[in-house]
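Lecture notes, unit on protein representations.

Consider one protein chain, 433 amino acids long.
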Amino acid sequence: MKHVSLVLAAVLAASLAGCSSSNTPAATTAPKDNKGDATPQPQAQKVKLTMGSWRTEDKEAYEKIIKEYQKKNPNVEIQFSPTKSTEYNTVLNTALQTGSGPDIIQLRPYAAGIALADAGYLEPLDSIKGLSVMSKDTLAAATGKDGKVYGVPTVFSSTQIFYNKKIFKKFNIEEPKTWEDLIKAADTLKQNKVTPFAFGSKEGWILSLTHGALGPGFYGGTDFVKKITSGQTNFKDKAFVDSIQMMQGLTKYFPDNYVGISMDDMRNLFVTEQAAMMVMGDWELAVMKKMNPALEMDVFPVPAPAGGKATVTTWVDGSFSVNKTSKNKAEAMKFIEFMTTKEFGQLVASELMKPSTIPGAEATDPTVTKISKFANSISTPYMFVVHFSSGTPTTKVTLETSLQGLYLNKQTPQQVVDEVQKSADTWFKPAAK
């Protein structure tokens, strides 16, 4: 998703709404007056919870999920109040520092969300029994330095290549199996005056996302991640340099004036069938289907250069936590427990059209099923989100701004690599071998 990592000074965000509502006990049997008639009693007020998130596009889906929860829990009102992604971190951080904020908080994954836990803003969730269905690697996205779990991961995100089936069929293009096939397909599209890739470098997160998807085939995927996190290599490794040079080499397949193109522009290019492919996260599937229900699209994993294996890049994209200052902590914890159930997992897979973190929760949409299959069989970690989202600015952000410089012809691939390594050197300590 919609995906962004910052440190505590600008971590996670949420709505300005404070923890609200009253915990009024349920009405008891009404006493009778002298005539034997029941004396009318005031109706119990519902407990009101607020949910903060940066996922504005998920509002409709979460409202449906909440409605299902309320069928068994009619005493609770839950308001899903997302904030614009680019403003979420600042808004949430400001609210938490003043002792307010939403009752239930969606955490950015890994370092950014963990920073809130380490700062003491979140309630530990180790008492939630349903967490046992998730792996340690999944829970790591919201595990604090003290070893306690502070968020329930709800969905996995993955990046792959979306493509327009109708356009591919028109020009007799098969799903690419190798990087060379992908470049050949891009050349065919360009020759026929179709923009090969919907892409823009205006928003930095698009650049780290795109590199995170396309880069593994060049730098070596999971094997490279293991080596760099254990100190056996660093970003100046030739394989990583090759991955940045690859990013530069794709520019001829981008739209005109791509440096000024935003995510919304990218989506419009693909949905209106002006571009045939888009490297993007699975969260866009539901958005694009809603924008153009007639769009014939599918996905394929990112092919690697000859001899390599195709991959999709995956990570836990956000977890839900409980605000330590919530006035309705018990009801908030109860909803968090619901988020660990298979019922919730099925709702997420169906409504958000994303792979659920709950084992056995299956999607009804065939494309989501396909994405889930890739994620379970040929995935590699989104390295800059999972391992390099710390620092001031974060190493992930450094990659993004440096790649923007590359596309503005202000930096070379080697300079990008040097900046990234310089950032990592300020904070990163390799894991013990």
